[in-house]
Amino acid sequence: MPHLTTDDDVRLYYEEAGSGYPIVLVHEFAGDYRSYETQLRYFARRYRVVAFNARGYPPSDVPEDFHRYSQERARDDIRDVMQGLGIERAHVVGISMGGFAVLHFGFAYPERASSLVVAGCGYGAEPDKRKQFLEESNRTAAAIESRGMAEVSKTYGAGPTRVQLQNKDPRGYAEFLTQLGEHSTRGAANTQRGVQALRPSLYDLTEQMKKLDVPTLIATGDEDDPCLEPGILMKRTIPSAALIVFPNTGHALNLEEPDLFNRTLADFFHQVEQGRYPRRDPRSQTGSILGM
Questions:
Q1: pLDDT tens readout for residues 102-125
Q2: Upper half-sphere CA count for residue 252 (Cβ side, 13 Å)
Q3: At a CB cut-off of 8 Å and minimum separation 6, what does 132 contact?
């Protein structure tokens, strides 16, 4: 089984398909590399596509100490995956927890990203939701530790932004739920405590956003309420950002709407590669409504 080793000696499992310009896929908390199977098959026709499991997600290593899990470490694990596979620059794609990691990767290593896709990103970011998110994250971690991931997956996987997938694609939802229940209990609890609960709010990162010049696609579902306002924040703050909202869609964008997700990213990548990706015209930001 293919693994590479990070600079803090954690082995990460990865899979890759295809050849060409690299795309690196970073999964969400409730997913793993298998969540990107549709993207691996679609983009491998023209690209070299890499999907890896975060630390805490077997067959990657599961460090016992939750202090070895953090937003900074998730960011640097992307760097180490690219380093280990000899990838200098790539299109870097993340959903939810992966979207946060990709955004921070863009802040720290902009020279390594041809483009960023930040999808389903925003849980716990809004200032009036911070306390609630922290409480829910710690409560979730405690439930995972006491009841096990196989049991907690049944409720976590049926949350208010997951029922959309269940309604659209019962077969796909059943597969998602099965895979979620197979996650490591220790790894999932540590990820909740070290990454999810301790990451900074997007609203505290606006100065870094203003300096981000990498072409960035923000994507969110219109029924993914925790991510709608943060998506608009990123669009308005990142000078190189575009925003797309998927209709009647919850959190798992690539699972719910795989065709729309793939076509949207393919068009975005093509614009970037052809040097035709637009920056926002300053005349659109004068503050005037009618221009008079």
A1: 999 999 999 999 999 999 999 988
A2: 29
A3: 124
